[in-house]
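Notes continue from the previous slide.

Worked example: a multi-chain complex. Inputs as given:
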Amino acid sequence: MPVTDANDGRPLAGVTVIDITQVVAGPFATMNLGDLGAEVIKIEAVGRGDRSRSITPNPEYFDTINRNKRSIEVNLKSEAGQEIVRKLTAEADVFVESAKPGRMEAFNLSYEELREVNPELIYCSISGFGRDSPYEELPAWDMLVQAMSGIMSITGEEGGQPLWSGLPSGDLITAMYTNQSVIAALYARERGVIDSEWIEVPMLDAAISWLSARAGHTFGFDEPFPRLGTRHPTISPFGVYSCSDDNIVIAAGTDSLFEELCRVIDREDLLEDDRFETGTDRAENYAALDAEIEAVLENDTADAWIDRLQAERVPAGPINDTKTVWEDEHVQRRELHQVMERPGREDADVIDHPIHFTSLVTELARAPEELGESTADLLARLGYDDAEIDELREDGVVG
Amino acid sequence: MPVTDANDGRPLAGVTVIDITQVVAGPFATMNLGDLGAEVIKIEAVGRGDRSRSITPNPEYFDTINRNKRSIEVNLKSEAGQEIVRKLTAEADVFVESAKPGRMEAFNLSYEELREVNPELIYCSISGFGRDSPYEELPAWDMLVQAMSGIMSITGEEGGQPLWSGLPSGDLITAMYTNQSVIAALYARERGVIDSEWIEVPMLDAAISWLSARAGHTFGFDEPFPRLGTRHPTISPFGVYSCSDDNIVIAAGTDSLFEELCRVIDREDLLEDDRFETGTDRAENYAALDAEIEAVLENDTADAWIDRLQAERVPAGPINDTKTVWEDEHVQRRELHQVMERPGREDADVIDHPIHFTSLVTELARAPEELGESTADLLARLGYDDAEIDELREDGVVG
């Protein structure tokens, strides 16, 4: 819900973020900062804007990651444009950029330069590999990061090729670390631990940190974590199972869940079967166990089995796609699919912020804007008058 | 690097976190809070501990997500055990739990009860679906969340089954939202916006928020986002390509990157080919384009092609696995694989915190502990003397 006062429960109320990022990683990060109450000012290239504005479907692709931001078109190659960014930054708290290392220096918008106009600035640089990397000059693409980090190697069918996960995980992991780091820096600044800060978020390093327990497999067994489709190397029953009309997933990886599963499918004889006695036995004989389970599941529909299994608290559910997920009972009750109205334009479809606070609030305050929708407003706030704004437009400094 | 003083550059220096979570989501979250300088006190079940202590390989699985924590064994079913947790929480800032909704109430450790001993507490509840969900009683497993959220539906071979991504993404997304929310609440508390807070992080909702632009596809085209292996629906060349000895990935999704790629593989004739003129043409005729490219790549090794492509800044790279990733030049230079020494035990292999601060610091201060390693220390800090501690142990209240 929109809120208006400064000390109103929004965790980042009063925080202003200057956002010179595009595509997914940076925009998803700053959208979250906006959800938490920050004012986000999105600097976009004159006449072109964020590259994701031209990715199809348009504007839906852009809209899902750019609510709660004000769009201003500025030509960063012009001195007058750089001056506008400096003025905006002077009154801001956070500056996030995702240009290639060195690019912001070329625009006279480096950390060192902006700290001169704002000695309390939290400056955050997102890039594929960071400075001082052998890949510093390499453009970072999410799929490249998934490949180099090892994430692709553990995704895919057993015996098949490594697969890109359908989500741009490299970008999104980076976004989440960006926010964790920026908010931590704001907290440290508030407590006087720092005056100012420069944070560097390298996508590859962020993605590698997520290997976590998968890397543990390698540290312990000195072998790569295997690619097994939806099978789990040490847990069974676990994975995708066919019913009469559709697939479902089941994850019954403890003794008690296995017992409950066997009761629900009326196969308590499996509990007496030597092949399935312990968790280790079941993981070893997973193929035989899966065959026994599917032989029963094939006698009824996916919905019927899900109802019966969930009623006994066996972790089982449907494999939703990006269309059916919005019809899910939980998703409907939570109203996760939200529509934001935009005067004079079609409504924007967005996904609500997923976290529930009790005293604090998150907000969907501002629908995704058109390119440069707030240019005049923001320039006026900086003290430019109408004649000056017109001149800046004519000179191609703003759009 | 270990640091010792309070106001020493650690963003969360002086913050104490009580952690009653297990397996991946909660522990990965609190590990990050520890990296940022918080003291994390991990409450574990007497004699059993975090379930991930028994997941193979042991202790490597556990070690990768449990550094920077002190382990204390407490029986939460005993009143004396609950009293110990209350005393620890009275002096803490943050309390994170991942029990099923209602479970903490049964232990007399609900938000309402703990706020009485600590009116400034930030209390965070991680669960599969949160309260008031039709699935409230359903145990949350990462794979179930990936299935129900739609993530699985977009992962997998074209025409093949939906696949679990090898990473426990549902758990890890939840962990990142936990930290973003907890640190934002600490910031809000520091500024006097709130006294105290109860945060609820539902895994399913968190995972669905990551659909972002993939959901945009559905909002715009009214169809599910397709499952395409490593192919991108609107970008080509993009994906896995065979060289003479191994596969590589290439993502050359702009005109200029395509031009550079053609130059590197000495096929500038492709730039004159009508089928490949625009990005849309290339996406449409991706199969023909991929065949042309692979015909050249098959004449040399993966390493040779990666060197040539990267030298011209074409996004291309190897598909590392969880073993080869540590040999990567960038990963070696950053020393992302760290070894933490533990007196009397084998060293712990961990992955370094991925974010670089300039004034602030992160730390690998405390190697993953054995179950109950800090029980006596922490009880002594609360004022229990040796005789009392012995009695608590005899009574099975602590371990």
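Summary box: Chain A touches chain B through 148 residues (CB under 8 Å). Chain A has two domains: 16-210+333-394, 238-321.
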